[in-house]
Amino acid sequence: MNHRCREVQQLWSKWEEMGLYIFFLPKYCSQMNPIELEWQHLKKDELASKTFENELDLDYAVIDGVETRAEKSWKWAR
Questions:
Q1: Which helix (H) or strand (E) covers residue 71, if one does?
Q2: What is the pTM of this model?
Q3: Residues 64, 56: contact at Cβ < 8 Å?
Q4: pLDDT at position 76, please?
């Protein structure tokens, strides 16, 4: 069952009486998706100005970048 199916639509008014409201986001809403900000920082800070010979090198660079960002976040959170 998804949010647009008939069964859910029939429950909307009942849910609204209970104070539950359904809001639909655009199909792609990067502002509402925290991972988008992380990818943005990863590309700008960790991968900027780098080139890769192949996909495997890119894979390793992404993994290293994620680990570096995690370490920075961990140190900051202490």
A1: helix 55-77
A2: 0.54
A3: no
A4: 65
